[in-house]
From TrEMBL:
Belongs to the alpha-carbonic anhydrase family. InterPro entries: Alpha_CARP_X/XI (IPR041878), CA_dom (IPR001148), CA_dom_sf (IPR036398), Carbonic_anhydrase_a-class (IPR023561). It holds the Pfam family Carb_anhydrase. SMART domains: Carb_anhydrase. Does not have a catalytic activity. Residues 1-21 form the signal peptide. PANTHER family: CARBONIC ANHYDRASE, CARBONIC ANHYDRASE-RELATED PROTEIN 10. PROSITE patterns: ALPHA_CA_2 (PS51144). This is Carbonic anhydrase-related protein 10. Keywords: Signal. Residues 43-313 form the Alpha-carbonic anhydrase domain. It comes from Balaenoptera acutorostrata.
Amino acid sequence: MEIVWEVLFLLQANFIVCISGRLPISSSFVWSAQQNSPKIHEGWWAYKEVVQGSFVPVPSFWGLVNSAWNLCSVGKRQSPVNIETSHMIFDPFLTPLRINTGGRKVSGTMYNTGRHVSLRLDKDHLVNVSGGPMTYSHRLEEVRLHFGSEDSQGSEHLLNGQAFSGEVQLIHYNHELYTNVTEAAKSPNGLVVVSIFIKVSDSSNPFLNRMLNRDTITRITYKNDAYLLQGLNIEELYPETSSFITYDGSMTIPPCYETASWIIMNKPVYITRMQMHSLRLLSQNQPSQIFLSMSDNFRPVQPLNNRCIRTNINFSLQGKDCPNNRAQKLQYRVNEWLLK
Ligand SMILES: *[C@@H]1O[C@H](CO)[C@@H](O)[C@H](O)[C@H]1NC(C)=O
Ligand SMILES: *[C@@H]1O[C@H](CO)[C@@H](O)[C@H](O)[C@H]1NC(C)=O
Ligand SMILES: *[C@@H]1O[C@H](CO)[C@@H](O)[C@H](O)[C@H]1NC(C)=O
């Protein structure tokens, strides 16, 4: 059944939603719309239109249904974005990323949150990152996976308009200024997200292999399933490159706070066709409800506006161009592996 929304108005905190067109208005939707706003709970959003049942706001509506989320629609520094490599700027002051695990392995619990595969680290072994665009040290809080229903989509960020099959996001918070991720997420310089594109191949990244092997991934088939993993080495998740691209943006889920610095590694990691298939077999729902694949859990790209995209890749042509026409000749050569 086709659903057409034409108008959606919000009036201050008590919002009124006017919808024209055909929409299966369920009891929960009517309930939500008629309540005064406090009951718009923080989980009331989705990536895709729900096949059956209640109205749940998709990305273009996130900022409209809840006044606490208005940055999702009016924010000017939103994520993800499409990275046009020809517009990147080489920043010689970007230092290498430093990942500090204290030489220890970590353990964490892997969850099916209904929206993502999410690995939350235990608090006993901390992993910090610093360097790159960071002025503070940031602590790893969560590893989150986004992926597509087909290989040509799934990543949140795009590179020259091209999506990847998935994207791993390592979400860190500024532990020098804030006591936890919740507080940091709404505060200046709060978050640093390291993002790594995922491609499908014959081999598999050793860290992702731990998460996505059959024995493990099938334990979190349904929403709220959880599974403990031990002896993880975060450094194994990183691709072999020190090159990255960075810009200032936002969280890619409501409330879309503009507190995140993004660091996108200039090489992908790989997972096998079988592992990608297993991801697509994860359900957004609990076992008693219909199966709804978690795949395509990405927010569409947002306008870059006048933000600057910086990189530590020195793409200067060797010597021979004079400073004046250099700008024209600058060309970022994306790592071949990324574009293949
Ligand atoms: C991370 O930072 C905290 C606070 O500065 C520090 O106590 C801890 O040792 C650091 N951990 C690592 C692995 O560097
Ligand atoms: C996070 O820190 C804030 C401020 O210290 C505190 O009020 C809040 O309860 C903490 N939240 C969690 C989930 O620990
Ligand atoms: C960038 O590369 C050019 C040409 O190879 C070199 O002259 C320059 O020193 C490099 N800059 C930095 C900051 O490494």
